[in-house]
Amino acid sequence: MSDTDNRPHPGETLRDDVLPALDLTVTEAARPLGVTRAVLSRVLNGCAAISPDMALRLEAWLGTKQGDRAEYWLSQQLAYDVWQARQKPRPAIARLAVK
């Protein structure tokens, strides 16, 4: 994936892949995660990040396979956050000159 590709928010993976595979609604998924429907909906719609707390909740709920670990969700969130930051203008920063 290049820097110009639109990296999806990890909540989209939950919304588009995980919940349909489990045949669950947002309300049904929020209950075992111990969060409100509104909280989960904000994550699923990319309005809120997957926090370390949410990642641990997902890990406990989904199991411990590679794609279900807290680190997986956090790495996806980090990749999304870095991609978002790269899309914004930044001031020119001179590289450190090593002597």
UniProtKB/TrEMBL annotation:
InterPro entries: Cro/C1-type_HTH, Lambda_DNA-bd_dom_sf, Toxin_antidote_HigA. GO terms for molecular function: DNA binding. It comes from the Bacteria. CDD domains: HTH_XRE. Signal peptide: none annotated. The keyword Iron-sulfur does not apply. Keywords: DNA-binding. This is Addiction module antidote protein, HigA family. It comes from Thiocapsa roseopersicina. The lineage of its organism: Bacteria, Pseudomonadati, Pseudomonadota, Gammaproteobacteria, Chromatiales.
